[in-house]
Design goal:
Radius of gyration: 39 Å
Strand content: 15-25%
Distance between the termini: 68 Å
Structural class: alpha+beta
Helix content: 40-55%
CATH superfamily of the largest domain: Hypothetical protein af1432
Shape: extended
CATH class of the largest domain: Mainly Alpha
CATH architecture of the largest domain: Orthogonal Bundle
CATH topology of the largest domain: Hypothetical protein af1432
């Protein structure tokens, strides 16, 4: 289970395996007699016999009998991890489902939904392994967690790897042993550590070192064995006087001594660049007190005082997590003292409650020991798992059902055909994946193959999908791709490509127009051409040239209109019209908000006649750098690029952002609020309002001034103004008023 697909032999039961099978079956029955009833075992036995008789079961690349191997895995799962009925039954029967002896529906009917659910999870993980991804990546660990669907599947695959690691010493090819050992070190040991399976984590690390660096492993093992008697005697002599003093003080306690793992010692040797003899802390002493809650700290510091009176402490090695516990709740007092023979010894002082938190905490130890965190969601989830796992009651199975792996529900993990792994946000499409691989692949994407089936570029991806991108050198991004893409990267690249396409089109059309002018021997004046574009209704030069490229606008018509305009400007008397008198003209009311039917603002280069309003949060005016934002029910809002809300809008709703820029000569007036701070001198307000009143086309709409006891005043001025240029000039003039300290918009 959960090994390579490289099967090598039909799994007939050999004579030398019969006794092992019998012993393993009996041991498992005894272990789980309270949770797996005899009827379950009868059904299991019948299904396994049919599986053997079918001839469809196969040994793996190490030659293990699958039934015996699964029995051994089930024993580890029950004895060392503590999982119950559904997990045990699923381990034994998943192969029967894989080879067709039973299907998921019949398993559900005979043995329950729990068993069917876990078997489905095991099958998915096996399919995942068949794709052979790079297991060293953090992404793969996340995928394994999200793909398993149920925490019990994760425990089962860890137990499977422990079983495998214990038996492969003389099995299979060295390359296969190396691969399995490497996976154990990079994937399974960290997972076991995060799940609080500390003994299993330690065993996996030591076995990995044994297979990957056997010379190092046996060297350290032999040296530990050679020094064990001396080390045990040293620990005994070291703690004896401490026990005597603590008993005299009336404290309730017990003391534990622990030798570091071979893997841990090797890591220290590499880090400190020293030999085995240079590692002074081969073991640690833990003093665990039975204290009342209100006396915990007092008792711990009393032990600290007793120990440091007896042995000289190293002040640089004091770690006080009593006064200020770690962020994960870990509480303990660590001190390193000089013991007999000049040896440094680490002592950890804590209470039973603190020790329980440290052992159960997934929190304290794995972050404390430097294992990378995958986020607070993972930490909280793992805490719940550990609590549920250690709550050995009859309701364990129901309690475990609550802990479905939904940690990564907002992400999907997909593979390339070569097995490379990519992480994308949930809802990401084939098009997003194409741009994730490379910009050129995205720009030329015509579709994809998901798990071997042809799909559209807008197909949403699911975790575990294997995706192949189909491309064509003739393909180019289209504007509707912005509605398909989900990731910011894809949307940004699509917009960049569309802009480049527009520039190429404009350049081509401009060259074509210039050629026509040259052929007709007409000299082209850029200023006249710009005025012609405005007269013809094009707010932006790119729109004008795009119309020519798309043959909406005929080149000959442009030339005719150009010549007419040149002649009109050279001989205005030939084109006189009756002039309107200004007498009696009444100006209509001005609007505070620019409307979309004005010709002042161009949205996204090619949107015309679209209704928009100016956002009140930043009150943009003509000439400001702006962008458009598509709201759900209030049309398009135009914001300044330095609007306080701009960054949030881009990060959370970037796909609704439209490019916007001002065109023409304006024509509207806009309300602007100015904040003025200055010395509260006599006449300063009159001086400010006088400047505003003297400005052409500037109208003061409102003023509010507040004086302070320190001789300063703060005020707001609301003015109607034409554009950003006029506003800048007004601010400069107000700033020159004597006593004004600061003017801001």
């Amino acid at each position: 289970m959960i090994l390579s697909n490289n099967m090598v032999e039909i799994a007939t039961i050999r004579d030398d395996e019969k006794q092992d099978l019998f012993d393993a079956f009996k041991k498992l029955q005894t272990l789980v007699a309270d949770v797996v009833n005899p009827d379950d075992f009868r059904k299991i036995k019948d299904m396994l016999m049919k599986a053997v008789q079918s001839g469809a079961l196969q040994r793996n690349q190490f030659g293990f009998n699958p039934i015996l191997f699964d029995l051994q895995t089930a024993i580890i799962t029950a004895e060392e991890i503590g999982l119950n009925r559904a997990s045990i039954v699923s381990i034994l029967l998943h192969n029967c489902v894989s080879i067709g002896i039973k299907n998921i529906d019949s398993i559900r009917e005979e043995l329950g939904e729990d068993v069917a659910h876990i078997i489905r999870g095991i099958q998915k993980v096996n399919e995942l392994y068949a794709k052979n991804p790079s297991i060293e990546t953090e992404n793969f660990r996340d995928l394994l967690l999200s793909f398993a669907e149920d925490m019990r599947v994760i425990f089962i695959i860890i137990a499977t790897r422990v079983n495998l690691m214990r038996q492969i010493k003389d099995r299979g090819e060295i390359e296969e042993r190396t691969r399995v050992a490497t996976e154990a070190a990079y994937l399974y040991a960290p997972l076991a550590h995060k799940l609080g399976l500390y003994l299993i984590k330690r065993e996996l690390e030591d076995l990995s070192l044994k297979y990957l660096e056997p010379d190092v492993f046996y060297m350290i093992k032999e040296k530990l064995a050679a020094t064990r008697e001396t080390r045990d005697l040293y620990i005994k002599n070291f703690i004896a006087p401490i026990e005597e003093k603590l008993n005299t003080a009336g404290l309730k306690f017990h003391i534990k001594g622990r030798t570091k793992s071979i893997h841990s010692i090797w890591q220290k040797m590499k880090k400190q660049k020293c030999k085995f003899e240079g590692i002074y802390d081969l073991f640690a002493i833990r003093v665990i007190l039975d204290s009342e809650l209100e006396k915990e700290k007092q008792d711990c510091w009393q032990v600290f005082s007793i120990v440091t009176d007896m042995y000289r402490p190293n002040p640089k090695r004091l770690r006080d997590w009593l006064s200020v516990p770690k962020s994960n709740g870990y509480e303990s007092l660590h001190i390193t003292v000089m013991g007999p023979e000049g040896k440094w010894v680490e002592i950890q002082i804590r209470t039973e409650r603190m020790d329980e938190i440290a052992e159960r905490g997934l929190a304290a130890h794995w972050r404390y020991k430097g294992v990378k965190d995958s986020g607070s969601k993972l930490e909280d989830w793992l805490k719940d798992i550990r609590v549920a796992l250690e709550n050995q009651t009859t309701s364990d199975e129901k309690l475990m059902d609550q802990f479905k792996v939904d940690l990564y529900s907002d992400e999907v993990f997909v593979f390339t055909p070569k097995g490379d792994l990519f992480k994308l946000p949930k809802g990401a499409t084939v098009l997003d994946f194409a741009f994730q691989i490379h910009t050129n692949v995205g720009c030329q994407c015509t579709g994809g193959k998901v798990n071997g089936k042809n799909v559209h570029i807008g197909t949403a991806l699911q975790s575990g999908d294997q995706v192949e991108i189909l491309t064509s050198s003739k393909q180019q991004p289209k504007r509707d791709w912005l509605n398909i893409a989900v990731t910011t990267k894809a949307k940004t690249k699509i917009r960049q490509s569309l802009t480049e396409q527009e520039m190429k089109v404009s350049s081509f059309a401009k060259e074509m127009l210039e050629r026509k002018f040259k052929n007709k021997k007409i000299e082209q004046d850029e200023a006249v051409m710009t005025r012609l574009q405005k007269k013809m209704g094009y707010k932006h030069v790119s729109e004008f040239y795009k119309a020519i490229a798309d043959e909406i606008l005929d080149v000959n018509t442009v030339i005719e209109r150009y010549q007419e305009l040149v002649e009109r400007e050279a001989n205005p008397s030939l084109f006189t019209t009756e002039q309107r008198s200004a007498d009696g003209y009444v100006a209509g009311p001005r609007e505070d908000k620019a409307q979309g039917n004005s010709d002042v603002l161009v949205l996204d280069n090619n949107l015309k006649g679209v209704e928009y309003t100016l956002a009140k949060c930043c009150s943009p005016i003509y000439g400001d750098d702006v962008f458009g934002f598509v709201t759900l029910n209030r049309g398009i809002k135009v914001h300044r690029t330095d609007c306080p809300n701009a960054q949030l809008l881009r990060e959370q709703r970037g796909y609704r952002i439209l490019r916007a820029e001002w065109a023409g000569k304006g024509g509207n007036q806009y309300p602007v609020t100015l904040h003025v701070v200055g010395h509260d001198d006599i006449g300063i307000v009159n001086n400010i309002t006088s400047i505003i009143n003297k400005e052409k086309n500037v109208m003061l709409r409102g003023i509010s001034i507040q004086s302070f006891e320190d001789g300063l005043f703060s005020g707001t001025l609301t003015v109607m103004i034409d554009d950003q240029k006029q506003l800048t000039q007004l601010i400069k003039k107000i700033t020159t008023v004597k006593g004004v300290k600061n003017v801001t918009r």
